[in-house]
Design a protein that fits this description.
Strand order of the largest sheet: 1-2-3-5-4
Structural class: alpha+beta
Helix content: 55-70%
Order of helices and strands: HHHHHHHHEHEEHHEE
Radius of gyration: 40 Å
Low-confidence stretches: 229-237, 321-326
Mean pLDDT: 80
Shape: rod-shaped
Strand content: 5-15%
Largest sheet: 5 strands, mixed
Number of helices: 11
């Protein structure tokens, strides 16, 4: 509101100076002159909501003022400001049409004997019209670019939030799914053996206790990462291939023989690769214990030139296991591998059994 008020004050002041220099006239004519001036200035206060209508109105009333009044009020300033507003609102064609109408009407007034305008004045007026339309168009382009940039930032923020939710869901699935599957298997063993073989039932209950403790520990670690909102790089949960022996022990307690083979020279892995490798092996072994009805599983960890290769092969039901174990678990493992620039394939083997094979590049960021 300050800008329209400022322009109005300038136009009224300039018109008042012109009125002082003009010979006295009848009051009805004076009142009409000021009504036209204030009416044109009032259009400025509508430039944001109705820019085209305000400019067209100001242009029409200004022409009436210049025809009927001897005063030299600078109403064309108001018209120029409104031309800029029309172009800045993205109505470039309307602004150009109004600018042409202004030049045509002014030219007709000059031909009719208006000594205030001549060829040079018309040329300068045309330059002002072009300048106002051009500046308004540039303003509109900058606004659109800024709005597009804001939308891109918001879209990137939503994408990052979705990726973070997916990562958290995948992490919780791997943490909880593995240990709860082990607890479920051992609870069934304990219930089955508690009357006939108390020692084995006690061993199963001990496994349940350890699995529950590990679940709580990993959940606390994962939730601790989520709470570290003020850290530039939160620390990932302390899971990696160094904890592979825990997976072997849990699998062996579930009557599953695990054979781990290491190929190549072991090396220190980036945190993201180490965690992804552990989670892939954890989920693969969990799927074997839950769905495959296997007796043995072979785990291969190969330190190759370009990256880490993981293979988990079992002698279970193969194709039948695919229908049960091919849900969120395999999809989550594949997403982990792809997030690091690697790949993962899973499916039944020709001779029976099921295989999960993953490749993780060494240079992948966590």
């Amino acid at each position: 509101m300050l800008f329209p008020a400022g322009v109005t004050a300038l136009v009224v002041a300039a018109t008042a100076v012109s009125a002082v220099r003009t010979p006295p006239r009848p009051w009805p004519q004076v009142l009409l002159d000021w009504a036209l001036v204030l009416s044109v200035c009032g259009a400025l206060f509508l430039w944001r909501r109705y820019p085209v209508a305000a400019c067209a109105y100001a242009l029409t009333v200004s022409m009436v003022f210049y025809v009927l009044s001897p005063l030299d009020g600078p109403l064309l300033v108001v018209v120029m400001v409104l031309l800029y507003a029309v172009a800045a609102a993205g109505r470039t064609v309307a602004a150009a049409a109004l600018g042409v109408a202004l030049l045509v009407e002014t030219g007709l007034g000059t031909l009719a004997g208006n000594s205030e305008f001549n060829g040079i004045t018309m040329f300068m007026l045309g330059g002002w019209v072009v300048a106002m339309v051009a500046l308004g168009t540039v303003r509109h382009g900058r606004q659109r670019y800024a709005q597009a940039a804001v939308r891109r930032v918001e879209a990137d923020a939503r994408r990052r939030q979705a990726e973070e939710r997916l990562r958290i869901a995948r992490e919780l699935h791997d943490v909880v799914g593995h240990h709860l599957s082990m607890i479920n298997v051992q609870a069934g063993t304990a219930l089955h053996r508690i009357g006939r073989d108390p020692d084995q039932a006690g061993t199963a209950l001990k496994v349940i206790k350890e699995a529950s403790r590990d679940t709580l520990r990993e959940l606390r670690s994962t939730l601790g990462v989520l709470r570290q909102v003020d850290e530039a790089e939160p620390t990932a949960p302390a899971s990696g291939l160094a904890r592979l022996e825990e997976l072997e022990r849990y699998a062996e307690l579930a009557a599953l023989k695990v054979d781990v083979v290491t190929e190549g020279e072991p090396r220190e892995l980036p945190a993201g690769v180490d965690l992804a490798a552990y989670r892939i092996l954890q989920e693969s072994i969990t799927n074997v214990t839950r769905h495959a009805a296997a007796r043995t599983v072979r785990v291969t960890i190969a330190y190759e030139t370009g990256g880490l290769r993981l293979e988990v092969e079992d002698d279970g039901r193969g194709a039948e296991a695919t229908s049960h174990g091919g849900g969120d678990g395999i999809r989550g493992m594949r997403e982990r591998a792809r997030a690091l620039g690697g790949d993962l394939a899973a499916g039944p083997m020709p001779g029976g059994g099921f295989r999960v094979r993953a490749r993780l590049p060494y240079g992948a960021a966590p």
